[in-house]
Design goal:
Elements: H1 7-10, H2 18-29, H3 31-38, E1 65-68, E2 74-79, H4 88-101, E3 107-108, E4 114-120, H5 124-129, H6 131-134
Antiparallel strand pairs: 1-2, 2-4, 3-4
Length: 144
């Protein structure tokens, strides 16, 4: 059996592809002829330039705690949900809090925390003093 770059293509018989034709041509004419036709060596190495684009620092959105809204007299309250996991009774309690304090509206953040929008400023203290919030595992300021 023949050896060399074209030996793989010789075993294909009459089914010679374009790649095999190039291998045969290189074998016949030599690499110097191909370089002369192209103008530069086919496998030149150009060193990789270091990546100069830097991402801006991620500004973490602070959803937890009490925040004033644009609407006068209203705030929104963000609760931390540990690991983003709810139990069935906790969902019911969160629904009760939403009905009682934020007009039935409750939102989930991308971090899987809970936001109660449209809470009247006079009712914020009552929401924070609710036994589910004050003594439960959902905290307004976790770790503090």
């Amino acid at each position: 059996m023949a050896s060399g770059p074209g030996s793989r293509c010789r075993s294909m018989g009459n089914n010679i592809t374009k790649v095999c034709k190039n291998v045969w041509r290189r074998e016949r004419e030599g690499l110097k002829t191909e370089v002369a036709q192209i103008g530069s060596p086919p496998c030149t190495y150009t060193p990789h330039t270091p990546h100069t684009h830097t991402e801006p620092a991620f500004a973490r959105r602070d959803y937890l705690g009490v925040h004033t809204q644009k609407q006068a007299g209203q705030s929104w309250v963000g609760l931390h949900v540990p690991v983003g996991r709810f139990r069935a009774f906790e969902i019911h309690e969160l629904g009760r809090l939403a009905e009682q304090y934020s007009g039935g509206e409750m939102r989930l953040t991308v971090e899987q925390n809970v936001i109660f929008p449209n809470v009247k400023d006079e009712e914020v203290a009552a929401l924070l003093a609710d036994p589910f919030v004050a003594g439960g595992r959902f905290k307004v300021n976790p770790g503090k």
